[in-house]
Specification:
Ubiquitin-like (UB roll); globular; alpha+beta; about 100 residues
Length: about 100
């Protein structure tokens, strides 16, 4: 199965990709060449360079950051928001088909 994910860039451009179930959205962003999603640590939850803002309509479905992710979100370059998540901690699945993520500027 695939989930259709859309990243909205700071300039308003959109990049969309169909992402296989079980793939984290940091890796999906890298495969889709989404600028601004770096993932220096490779998804090990130790760099905060895959920071995204989850679209308001999707916040409940993506869940809340756990303790480690929550602490890492305090170290992001872009301002932290209530919708902030590390994309390495969001995993594609049927419930996220249509998910919209905003890339911080």
């Amino acid at each position: 199965m695939m989930a259709h994910i859309t990243w909205i860039l700071p300039d308003g451009r959109q990049i969309a990709a169909d992402v296989a179930d079980g793939v984290n959205l940091m890796n999906a962003a890298a495969m889709a060449n989404v600028p601004g999603i770096i993932g220096e640590c490779g998804g090990c939850l130790s760099c905060a360079t895959c920071h995204v803002y989850v679209d308001e309509a999707w916040q409940e479905k993506t869940g809340e950051a756990d303790g480690t992710e929550d602490a890492m979100l305090d170290a992001t370059d872009a301002p932290r928001r209530d919708s902030s998540r590390l994309s390495c901690q969001i995993v594609a699945g049927p419930a996220l088909d249509g998910l919209v993520l905003h890339v911080p500027g």
